[in-house]
């Protein structure tokens, strides 16, 4: 019985394909919405988007943010986006690829951005997320940290935080972190 349904689905796909060649893959609602979001992107000059699996796979892409001001000037931070087929009902999964000394990003690349968690709503889009990520680099938030150590330094001694960011970005020793090139 299951095999019969599979044959009927294949026949419908072939019938729907005008040239009779390879059946076209039907896009999910999430893919359609994501296609619209990407077509309407209005990114600042310091942000770029790329599709490592090619433009046919919109569900996984990367965004690089190169802040123009703040503690992270001169850095280039790449984020991977994985989008669920039920997008926009579920927020995309976003990870920071390079290690970064940041109060809102842990060393595994997890990002603490409210719109990726409890404040996500289907009316939000990819553009909103990218601007949120950019804002984390221009105004890091020590009140909602993933990296508590970096948050404490930012809160209590912004000059030391700036120095730690600069040292981490250049591959120098940062107390508690060792000699790790972070970006």
Automatic annotation (TrEMBL):
Annotated Gene3D superfamilies: Ubiquitin Conjugating Enzyme
UniProt keyword annotation of Transferase present: yes
Pathway membership: Protein modification; protein neddylation
Residue numbers spanned by region Disordered: 10-29
Gene Ontology MF terms: ATP binding; NEDD8 transferase activity
Keywords for this protein: ATP-binding, Nucleotide-binding, Transferase, Ubl conjugation pathway
Residues covered by the UBC core domain: 29-174
Assigned protein family: Belongs to the ubiquitin-conjugating enzyme family.
Name this protein carries in UniProt: NEDD8-conjugating enzyme Ubc12
């Amino acid at each position: 019985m299951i095999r019969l349904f599979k044959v009927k689905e294949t026949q419908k796909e072939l019938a729907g394909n005008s040239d009779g060649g390879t059946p076209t893959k039907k896009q999910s609602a999430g893919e359609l919405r994501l296609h619209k979001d990407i077509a309407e992107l209005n990114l600042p000059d310091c942000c770029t988007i790329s599709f490592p699996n090619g433009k046919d796979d919109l569900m996984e892409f990367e965004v690089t943010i190169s802040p123009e001001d703040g503690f992270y000037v001169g850095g280039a931070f790449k984020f991977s986006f994985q989008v669920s087929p039920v997008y926009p009902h579920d927020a995309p999964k976003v990870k920071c690829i390079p290690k970064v000394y940041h109060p809102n990003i842990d060393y595994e690349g997890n990002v603490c951005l409210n719109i990726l968690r409890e404040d996500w709503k289907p009316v939000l889009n990819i553009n909103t997320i990218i601007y949120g990520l950019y804002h984390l680099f221009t105004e890091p938030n020590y009140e909602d940290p993933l990296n508590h150590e970096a948050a404490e330094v930012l809160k209590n001694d912004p000059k030391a935080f700036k120095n730690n960011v600069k040292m981490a970005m250049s591959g120098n020793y940062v107390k508690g972190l060792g000699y790790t090139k972070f970006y």
